[in-house]
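Reopening: GNAT family N-acetyltransferase still failing for me.
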Amino acid sequence: MIETARLLLRPPVQADHPALYAMWADPLVMADLGPVKDAAASAAALARHDGFRHEGLGFQSVVRKEDGAVIGFCGLKRGDPSNPIAGQVEAGWMLARACWRQGYALEAMRAMLAWGWANLDVPHIVAITSRRNAASRAMMQRLGMTYVDGGDFDHHAFAADDPLRHIVTYRINRPASAA
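Support: Ran it again with your exact input. Result attached.
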């Protein structure tokens, strides 16, 4: 478990599923992430993200300490083997709409990156998003990530005419203090 001033980050438990599934079913949350998911697709997404725990990676439920509410999902995983970031450590996050613009995602991901530098022997961590996802791109920059020139690609999971297909890559290098 990772603790910040306002949050607990921990592996998802069964009681978290309704809140997480609600995020995946929210068209505004998913507008720049991919299609909304029903319960079965949400369960599959949880299982996929949990599949990295054997190497110390995986996504966490983001729990607000003041009331115990599950407000997001974030973590580190291996990049999809069919994308140019294959095998690299990839950061990602999702937050319930009611919790946007309150600094929770930034707080959670700063803690995840700090955990990554302390526990993983990797030279950098990447994050990807659709080219049009200005909010995530701004968040990546606030985290200290920089745009990877030449890192754009078309994501195989989206149709050729889907604007979410066009992906950009950002990267943050291991800080000297974490070496």
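Residues 2-178 form a domain with the Aminopeptidase fold (CATH 3.40.630.30). If you still see a failure, please send the error message rather than a screenshot.
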